[in-house]
Amino acid sequence: MLQQGSGLCYNSLLATGYAVKIACLVNTYPRASHTFIRREIHALERMGFAVHRLAMRSDRAALQDEADKAEDLRTEHVLELGRSRLAGTALGWMLRHPAASARALACAWRLGKRAGNRPRHAVYLAEAAYVAARCHTLGIHHIHAHFGTNSASVALLAHLLGGPRYSFTVHGPEEFDAPHSLALDEKIRHAAFTVAISSFGRSQLCRWSAVTDWPRLKVVHCGIEPARFPDPAPVPAKLRLVAIGRFSEQKGFPLLIEAVAQAIRHHPDLHLTLVGDGPLRGEIEALIETHTLRRHVTLAGWLTEAQVRAELAAAQALVLPSFAEGLPMVVMEAMAAGRPVLATAIAGLPELVTPETGWLVPAGDATALAEGINQIASLPLARLTEMGRAARARVLARHDVNREATKLALLIRAAAES
Hints:
Blueprint lengths: L9 H6 L5 E8 L6 H12 L3 E8 L8 H8 L1 E3 L5 H14 L1 H18 L2 H21 L3 E5 L3 H11 L4 E6 L3 H4 L6 H7 L2 E4 L2 H9 L9 E3 L20 E5 L8 H11 L7 E5 L5 H10 L6 E5 L3 H9 L3 E4 L8 H8 L4 E4 L13 E4 L4 H13 L2 H18 L2 H17 L1
Parallel strand pairs: 1-2, 1-4, 2-3, 4-5, 5-6, 6-7, 8-9, 8-11, 9-10, 11-12, 12-13
Helix pairs in contact: 2-17, 4-6, 5-6, 5-7, 6-7, 11-12, 11-15, 14-16
């Protein structure tokens, strides 16, 4: 059996001659904000893994990047099969596996009680039966789910229904907000292993799982593809900042608008580009009008990966004003692009952003964010460039997707062979 600490390297995995067939299970895939999943899948495939993409639904209407559109075509979307086909496949599997179905039904009942929504978990049970049947048909050895929410519920129930062993990656912060109703302890107990994307994330999983399960809690960072980040563009002379993410409560963008309103009193040439969209767009637009910041703030909407890299190249730094996070990909991408980061000191961010690579400020404090912007503005280009180089070196050392996917590959192969 291959263990994570065995020293087996990327090339050794390719040379084993044993192709592991796995399913990557996600609730909605692909999404513009889930490029880290695509990168991980592609890295596993480069190692010789056969990866079947399984998602309950697609977000194709919102996809702009051609790579995401191509990934959508490679993904089996369960709910697009139609109710009759899904129900027929699920019922057929359950009738052929009555004892396993009874165990899974009891588990779905418990999960539904904890979540306060048993009807929804009845749907998860049907989806899980379909997934178990598909894994049997395709000869899949292992299921790896992303997020500890309903995708992990389906993976757990599929396993109890007689499907393959499973694992899942917890990204946060949603899972950290509702560990009891999500039954993280039960999902962790039944999983072959559970992945956190930072040491902070693993510490939170330790809080909600049995001590005996802690050895199976692993850290595998989300990864970037170094080849997509060649030598950084020179840091621009103008005070331009960029913030990237969904316009939701946890990202703190309204607070960033308040900070910009304070910072322009000292730096009237400051410009911020917000990349993304979401439910708080109206509130953000209203704040921009209230503070007469239309000349200083651009709402760019969702952009392709190439366009995001262009925005990073045009900025002196990335700003992340979040109230809750896991360990955001945008921080890794900014650092790989040679840009320092101004972020809130929460979750896994202090593991990546250091005084040599950026600034950490208290969450929820617009004045602290404004002071961080002032610090960026006060530094000469040479110092910003030096910080950007340190940021690039740090993220490439810690978040190379091939290196991180190798860690996951070792864990999956060990689980499949045990």
